Amino acid sequence: MKLLVPVKRVLDYNVKPRVKADGSGVDLANVKMSMNPFDEIAVEEAIRLKEKGVATEVVVVSIGEPKAQDTLRTALAMGADRAILITSDVRPEPLGVAKLLAKVVEEEQPQLVILGKQAIDDDNNQTGQMLAALLGWGQGTFASKVEVEGDTAHVTREVDGGLETVALPLPAIVTTDLRLNEPRYASLPNIMKAKSKPLAQKTPADYGVDLTPRITVLKVEEPAKRAAGIKVDSVDALVDKIKSLGVIA
Amino acid sequence: MSVLVLVEQLDGRVKDATLATLTAAAKLGDITALVAGHGDAATQAADAVAKVAGVSKVLLANDPAYANLLAENVAALVVPLMADHDAFLANATSIGKNVAPRVAALLDVMQVSDIVAVESADTFVRPIYAGNAVATVRSSDAKKVITVRATGFEKAATEGGNAAVEPVAAPGDQGKSRFVGAETQESARPELTSAAVIVSGGRALGSEEQFHALIEPLADKLGAAVGASRAAVDAGFAPNDYQVGQTGKIVAPDVYVAVGISGAIQHLAGMKDSKTIIAINKDEDAPIFQVADVGLVGDLFQILPELTEKL
Ligand SMILES: Cc1cc2nc3c(=O)[nH]c(=O)nc-3n(C[C@H](O)[C@H](O)[C@H](O)COP(=O)(O)OP(=O)(O)OC[C@H]3O[C@@H](n4cnc5c(N)ncnc54)[C@H](O)[C@@H]3O)c2cc1C
Ligand SMILES: Nc1ncnc2c1ncn2[C@@H]1O[C@H](COP(=O)(O)O)[C@@H](O)[C@H]1O
């Protein structure tokens, strides 16, 4: 069975985001960009399913600027088999991404699509659920464990009260949480090999999908700064501070 | 504007997150509260939410299909109801985040996630980039689908309302997913997202035993909920639902005590709106001190027992 993994190129999680002076957004010029960390986990999970013999092919797809190609090459170096790059001038929103992915699914017929639970730039946490809705499939979101048996996926989900397990008839959607796995690093030989793996280039028009945004960003600001605090030099001083807050029962 | 709000309840009590969402909804218009669930708890929750100030109608879908609020089933219930409503609001909780985007896509609407303020009927404020930036966004969709971050809104009063409860036809199980089981921990502590005081431990606690032995007694003294950094959860010191941060729980208690937590941006994203932040860390340059109101530099293994003792 085939697996599809959508990956997004985002500001590297170690880089402190800077708001642009004109309030139009976060400055992405000349800063390190990487694969969304949750998508690395998704790629890793797909590769493990292939290594276990559950899956036969892992296809990765990214929608965005031409440089998203680097992100796809990273996924190929980790072990994905082939890639699809859909280049778009507008920054696509989750709804548009989900519509494009639904078309890719129609074409590729994967049994499982594994996405990240959220892209750490816009923190939307929507695309997987939207794709599941558009396809009429079941969804196992925020997964910390995925087991495929026959035509069913058992997904353990990280929820507010602990963990929860659902069974989904395939085909289905999974979105990854942090503790699903620890993604591998690509080895140098695999990075070299990835350069010759197939990467198809497409546009949203090829799929007949309109990406016109529904949401306008009016302004982006720095969050309110916290006033500078103090350091105390002893436990006794800390005890006094805590007592002054009036929180002791 | 007519607003449909998905209610979350526990044992018949309306969850605090929903009370915050109801406050956000009141800024948009007339509120219909939707209780989907199964059994007496659902009925009790419907009666309870009917009393919340500002709720004008309650719809109750009492059916086994909603016992676990599976997104596939709840979305199938909500979408037809949206013919009569202009906005759908859910909590930015693991339930709301699972259900709302499914509803949005079925309505062909781009969801506005995690709002912390309502500027007008179509304009909302939401943090992006782990709270390192705050965006004001306008939705051009005719209907709005929104998730609400509880820390942005006061809780609605649980008294003062007198809405009628109406049963609503349930489309039932969609057969797209099946609930197998849950591992939830019963705890006598206050819930993390609504606690007034939180004590959180990080990687520095070193083991599950030490996490319990040092963090819990301090939390007991303070009547606090217990949280953790991702590193502490990954290492197995604390369960996953303790994680505070960009991708865990967002909290804003009166007092947040961070013990042996460095203060990575992903952790700060989840707690930097706390009223008072207290940090204990042996590294005086740890980033947590940049947001802390009160800091104590030193070894937590010495400080915590002494602190707990003296409080
Ligand atoms: C996609 C993504 C999402 C993430 N989401 C989250 C999230 O939601 N929440 C989250 O917390 N993290 C999250 N992280 C992880 C985050 O980047 C940090 O790795 C994590 O917060 C570090 O946890 P920590 O502070 O406990 O550990 P460390 O960074 O290792 O810090 C330990 C601290 O303890 C101090 N210390 C050590 N020994 C002692 C002692 N004896 N006494 C006192 N102090 C001591 C050290 O000085 C240090 O500051 C995420 C990361 C990624 C990539
Ligand atoms: N532009 C994109 N290209 C490919 N995948 C994407 C894109 N945007 C979102 N995704 C996928 O959807 C997940 C959730 O993103 P979001 O809903 O934006 O938080 C990501 O982790 C990716 O797996």
Automatic annotation (TrEMBL), chain A:
<dbReference type="InterPro" id="IPR014729">
    <property type="entry name" value="Rossmann-like_a/b/a_fold"/>
</dbReference>
<dbReference type="InterPro" id="IPR012255">
    <property type="entry name" value="ETF_b"/>
</dbReference>
<protein>
    <recommendedName>
        <fullName>Electron transfer flavoprotein subunit beta</fullName>
    </recommendedName>
</protein>
<dbReference type="Pfam" id="PF01012">
    <property type="entry name" value="ETF"/>
</dbReference>
<keyword id="KW-0813">Transport</keyword>
<keyword id="KW-0249">Electron transport</keyword>
<dbReference type="GO" id="GO:0009055">
    <property type="term" value="F:electron transfer activity"/>
</dbReference>
<dbReference type="InterPro" id="IPR000049">
    <property type="entry name" value="ET-Flavoprotein_bsu_CS"/>
</dbReference>
<dbReference type="InterPro" id="IPR033948">
    <property type="entry name" value="ETF_beta_N"/>
</dbReference>
<comment type="similarity">
    <text>Belongs to the ETF beta-subunit/FixA family.</text>
</comment>
<feature type="domain" description="Electron transfer flavoprotein alpha/beta-subunit N-terminal">
    <location>
        <begin position="23"/>
        <end position="211"/>
    </location>
</feature>
<dbReference type="GO" id="GO:0046395">
    <property type="term" value="P:carboxylic acid catabolic process"/>
</dbReference>
<comment type="function">
    <text>The electron transfer flavoprotein serves as a specific electron acceptor for other dehydrogenases. It transfers the electrons to the main respiratory chain via ETF-ubiquinone oxidoreductase (ETF dehydrogenase).</text>
</comment>
<dbReference type="InterPro" id="IPR014730">
    <property type="entry name" value="ETF_a/b_N"/>
</dbReference>
<comment type="subunit">
    <text>Heterodimer of an alpha and a beta subunit.</text>
</comment>
UniProtKB/TrEMBL annotation, chain B:
<comment type="subunit">
    <text>Heterodimer of an alpha and a beta subunit.</text>
</comment>
<dbReference type="GO" id="GO:0009055">
    <property type="term" value="F:electron transfer activity"/>
</dbReference>
<feature type="binding site">
    <location>
        <begin position="229"/>
        <end position="230"/>
    </location>
    <ligand>
        <name>FAD</name>
    </ligand>
</feature>
<feature type="binding site">
    <location>
        <begin position="260"/>
        <end position="267"/>
    </location>
    <ligand>
        <name>FAD</name>
    </ligand>
</feature>
<dbReference type="Pfam" id="PF01012">
    <property type="entry name" value="ETF"/>
</dbReference>
<keyword id="KW-0285">Flavoprotein</keyword>
<dbReference type="InterPro" id="IPR029035">
    <property type="entry name" value="DHS-like_NAD/FAD-binding_dom"/>
</dbReference>
<keyword id="KW-0813">Transport</keyword>
<dbReference type="GO" id="GO:0033539">
    <property type="term" value="P:fatty acid beta-oxidation using acyl-CoA dehydrogenase"/>
</dbReference>
<keyword id="KW-0249">Electron transport</keyword>
<dbReference type="InterPro" id="IPR001308">
    <property type="entry name" value="ETF_a/FixB"/>
</dbReference>
<protein>
    <recommendedName>
        <fullName>Electron transfer flavoprotein subunit alpha</fullName>
    </recommendedName>
</protein>
<dbReference type="InterPro" id="IPR014730">
    <property type="entry name" value="ETF_a/b_N"/>
</dbReference>
<feature type="binding site">
    <location>
        <position position="281"/>
    </location>
    <ligand>
        <name>FAD</name>
    </ligand>
</feature>
<feature type="domain" description="Electron transfer flavoprotein alpha/beta-subunit N-terminal">
    <location>
        <begin position="3"/>
        <end position="183"/>
    </location>
</feature>
<dbReference type="InterPro" id="IPR014731">
    <property type="entry name" value="ETF_asu_C"/>
</dbReference>
<feature type="binding site">
    <location>
        <position position="203"/>
    </location>
    <ligand>
        <name>FAD</name>
    </ligand>
</feature>
<dbReference type="InterPro" id="IPR014729">
    <property type="entry name" value="Rossmann-like_a/b/a_fold"/>
</dbReference>
<comment type="similarity">
    <text>Belongs to the ETF alpha-subunit/FixB family.</text>
</comment>
<comment type="function">
    <text>The electron transfer flavoprotein serves as a specific electron acceptor for other dehydrogenases. It transfers the electrons to the main respiratory chain via ETF-ubiquinone oxidoreductase (ETF dehydrogenase).</text>
</comment>
<feature type="binding site">
    <location>
        <begin position="243"/>
        <end position="247"/>
    </location>
    <ligand>
        <name>FAD</name>
    </ligand>
</feature>
<dbReference type="GO" id="GO:0050660">
    <property type="term" value="F:flavin adenine dinucleotide binding"/>
</dbReference>
